[in-house]
Every structure is written in structure tokens, then in C-alpha cells.
């Protein structure tokens, strides 16, 4: 049929040394991203004389740029290779660190966050697609779990490293070094993906509307947790920081150790089971329970959140043409950015008018939307992997 499956040879597939090098490079890339965050706001506000509104604009620049960048990161990965997209992302992350040192005033942070958005989009698209193809489609969910562990591990450890380094300039320098070390690691990983023209013309976006909307609704809860959890629980034992840590830790461990569940069981089962866990956790947190119950709710929420993304993405990657997998990752990630951005404003408006508990109720209702659109994602999913496996066998 004239195209490569984009996967390494059978002997090289699986969780081999090269795969773990990819995960390590992903961790380093996101570690650098997280390192500058604790000092970025104070740097803009006090060192550069910006206003609080300027701080918000600088922080928000990342999301808007990342949303647009995902739409070209996917095609770049499909046409030039996963490795090129990954390297482009890491190089852009290094440029972000360099931009913070430029003597151009407030334009420096804006430029840095612009490079950061481009870098994150390319880095994630290249890493997720390449990791799934290295591990094999039959281990796709587990591979995505490891990628997510690298991302969340880096993002979680980054602020601690930034605080330890003490100054924004040191954090920016660390970001440059971490990105360049990861760049060097990736250059030594062999890629066998061979981009080639494919018979499929168009239709990708229309086929990803239901998975994209389902993904978006799943993540509506995140701005609620990130923005209002600590404030919500401040009057109920002040357990917000502990609850958020439990949420993040449970998710990190579940994705690392239980990431294979969507490969071993029907993906619809882990998807809807994850939604049920998320709903239970949010319902526990909504009324503002005492600390022990709130920590339990955070753990249940983090556990449930561990499965929907990998269940959807692995299902989609098994269905789409090998030459469109990068684009599929980019489009689904763009839906994530769009919904998280929109729900951030919505959660703020709901919390201001009706109280913090109402924002958690909003997140529960969003999961109902995720369940509705999830039905379209997994209807007939059982027949699709077989078709893809047969096609893959035919072209290898």
C-alpha cells in the first residue's frame, strides 16, 4: 500500500531502553517547564514592574499559543517524523529559557511563554505518538500512562526545583539545560517512521469531534481543582493543599502502575469507570467535607482521572491511518486546551455568583457530557482494532 506503519520492527517493539529514554526526555522537558513557574509571576510583577493583569496575560499566553501550535505540531509529526516534532518542541523550550534573559523588558516573558507554548505542543505530540508506536498499539494505553507519568512527574517536581534554585534567572537557566539534555538524549534514539502519502483524504477532524468533545468535558474539572480547591476547603479544615497533592500523586501512580488496564479490558469499561470515579470524588468534595474525607475524595478523583484520556486516545490511534496519528494527537489536545480555557472562565463566573460548591457541581455535570459523547467514541470500537491490526500486518 506504499506506507510504513510508523512502528519499529517487531524485535525492537515494547518497553525497551529506547522507550524509557523517550519517557526520560519527556520528564526533563516538562521539568524545565515547571521550574520557572514559581518565580514567573513575581519576576513580571516586581523585577519588570508589570501589573497583576500583565501577570495574567503572560501566564495565559502559553495556553493560547499551545492551542494554535497543536494544529501544526500534528502534521509536522506525520510529515517529518515523530523525532523531528519532539526535537522541535525541546528546542523551542530551550529558546523559551533564553528569551527570559533578553534585555527587552516585559516582551521577554511574553516571548518566553510563546516559545513555551510551541514547545509543549510539539513535545507532547511527538512524545505521545512515538511512545505508542514504540510500545505497539496493543500496549498503547500503557505507553500513554508512562508518558503522562513523565509529564506529571516533571510538572510536579519542577516548582520544587524552582523554589530550591531560589531565583527566576536560575530557574530559566535550568530550563535551558534540561531541554538541551533531553534534546541530546532524543538525538540518540533511532526512529524508523517513514512518512509517505496515504490514501485517506480529509475526514480526520469530523471523525475526532466526538472524541474531542468527550476529552474536553472530562477535563472541565481541572480548572475547578487548580483554581478553587484550596479556596473551597480553606473554611473546612484548610485541607486543600493536601487534597491536591493526593489527587496528583494518586493520578501519577495510577497512570504508571495501572496504565495497561485500558489495553487489557475494553476501553469503554475503563473510560466510563473512570468517569464514575471522577464523579464520586467531585461529589465528595463539593460540600466541603472534613479533611480526612476530602483527602479520600481527592484520591478517588485522581484515580478516576487516570483512565479516560488513555482510553480515548489509544482507541483513536488504533482507528486512524498511521500517517495521521500525530495529527489526531494534536487535534484531541487542542480540544483539551479549548475546554480547559473556556471552563476556567465559566468556573470563575459560577463560583463568584453561586459559591465554590457550585463550581464542583458544574464539573460533575460536565462528566455527564463526557459520558454522552463517550458513547459515540466506543460504539463499534471492538471491530476497529482488528481492522487496523490487519492493515498493519499487511504493510509490515
Can you give a write-up of this model?
The chain has 396 residues and is mostly helical. The chain folds into two domains: 10-187, MFS general substrate transporter like domains (Growth Hormone, Chain: A, Up-down Bundle), CATH 1.20.1250; 204-395, MFS general substrate transporter like domains (Growth Hormone, Chain: A), CATH 1.20.1250. The chain has helices spanning 17-35, 37-47, 52-80, 82-99, 107-135, 140-165, 168-187, 204-207, 209-218, 221-233, 240-257, 261-264, 267-285, 291-305, 308-319, 325-354, 356-378, 384-395. α1 runs antiparallel to α7, α3 (52-80) runs parallel beside α5 and α4 runs antiparallel to α7. The N and C termini lie close together (10 Å).
Shape: globular
Low-pLDDT residue intervals, each spanning 5 or more residues: 1-6, 381-396
Question: What order do the helices and strands follow?
Answer: HHHHHHHHHHHHHHHHHH
Please report the number of helical segments.
18
> What is the radius of gyration computed over CA atoms, rounded to a whole number of angstroms?
21 Å
Number of domains: 2
Provide the β-strand percentage band: under 5%
CATH superfamily of the largest domain: MFS general substrate transporter like domains
Mean pLDDT: 88
Examine the secondary-structure arrangement and name the CATH architecture of the largest domain: Up-down Bundle
What oligomeric arrangement do these chains adopt?
single chain
Overall structural class, as computed from helix and strand content, comes to mainly alpha
